[in-house]
Amino acid sequence: MFRSLRRTLGALCAAAAVLVLPLAGGAPSAAAAEAAAGAGYWHTNGRQILDANNQSVRIAGINWFGFETANHVPHGLWSRDYKSMIDQIRSLGYNTLRIPYSDDILKPGTMPDSLNFDGKNTDLRGLTSLQVLDKIVAHAGQSGLKVILDRHRPDAAGQSALWYTSAVPETTWITNLKALATRYKGDSTVVGIDLHNEPHDPACWGCGDTARDWRLAAERAGNAVLSANPDLLVLVEGVQSYNGVSGWWGGNLMGVADHPVRLDVPNRLVYSAHDYATSVAQQSWFSDPNFPDNMPGVWDRYWGYIFKQNIAPVWVGEFGTTLQSTVDQRWLAALVTYLRSTSTHGNDSFHWTFWSWNPNSGDTGGILKDDWQTVDTVKDGYLASIKAPGFPPGGGSGDPGDPGDPGDPGGGTPACTAVYTVSSDWGGGFNAEVKVTNSGATALKSWKVSWTWSGSQKVTTMWNASYTQSGATVTATNAAHNGALAAGASATLGFGGAPGGGGVPSVSCTAT
């Protein structure tokens, strides 16, 4: 079925979409007040997720896949170091990593494949796949990212409709979930486990057949996870069909209204939906004459009502598109609006992790382009309004603010550098980006860049920063999600301007 395409290496789609990008305006006071949220383990209260200090948080993240494939390691490490990958994710304003895996990586001695050790990933040499996961979790925590582990497949051969197969029975699934919960107990970088990816027909919700009822299986597995680590969030996806109404794999949570998941530990449950565009498959709602105005009603019916009725938090664990068609562009713009902008709603919003970071997702592509370095600023720009503040660096069992924490930046004077690059220039206009890098030894709280054109150029739109322009001089200030930079980390702002032919001005950078 169509959903298997995203899990294979195939032809990569390079989208050339023409659209007006949403502006990433200045940081709202609500978001600024919550910038330090995220400490420790998390719990739920109604539709919100709260940190250890009862401050609300918003998951605004990205999927980085590969552990679930025959490589048994996240993809792209054949060309880049894992630390640079994680730092770039953080610099773009994503605050959470969803890491898919298969049960294969829990088999003793499973080794990663396609890792480049030539001046890269040198500390991963000789490690098992699980030990590589440890390293990724550790660096993610030090960078201020949280991690959600996603049991994506029972083995590397492919996805399964049910949570078990003849080769990987339910007992193995639950044993491995408990093993991971135990492995990261005390490390609050790992805040939750997504129990099984995209249950679909013949999986049911609330039918009472223990061999097919995903709701009952999620209760068994969720309670097993919490018996090993009661601090974790348990993330439960939907199914495909409920009472004759079918939708995306894992995207149908209509059954929650009559058959909610019951866990032994209160305030740990988060429901998860997946939603996609036509580059994955056609659905009836895409051809509705009222599209895309019909989409909020579709989402309300399948999963949005859970949030709107204050039943539990809702996390859109996967959504993505190649952005090649106008329909897909309108779908993504409508979904971003539905998920609620951080500037207006703060963390009282839907949670999300975009599919995917990887460019080698056959039917969606990724935030990275085929070189595993360059950011698709068009696709990333769509997400600017729903990105959210990052979290304190650290993890582990101690206070994230403890000066002894490995993520503590130490002392020093804040410093930054900036590089201006023109990505395209067609005479009448141009696109460019400025990459800001923390060049000092201490973490940055915020940054500002400035440049002066020699001609009559004007900024027409900008994302991942706010700006002012006086004459030929432009001053851009970080957005709420990308002002904090660890030592050596980078953030990138992008913009369009007119007319073209402005060349490359020198850029000054100041930091606090």
From TrEMBL:
InterPro entries: CBD2, CBM2/CBM3_carb-bd_dom_sf, CBM2_carb-bd_dom_sf, GH, Glyco_hydro_5, Glyco_hydro_5_CS, TAT_signal. Residues 409-512 form the CBM2 domain. Gene3D superfamilies: 2.60.40.290, Glycosidases. Keywords: Carbohydrate metabolism, Cellulose degradation, Glycosidase, Hydrolase, Polysaccharide degradation, Signal. Residues 389-416 are annotated as: Disordered. PANTHER family: ENDOGLUCANASE, MAJOR EXTRACELLULAR ENDOGLUCANASE. Belongs to the glycosyl hydrolase 5 (cellulase A) family. This is Endoglucanase. It comes from Streptomyces heilongjiangensis. The lineage of its organism: Bacteria, Bacillati, Actinomycetota, Actinomycetes, Kitasatosporales.
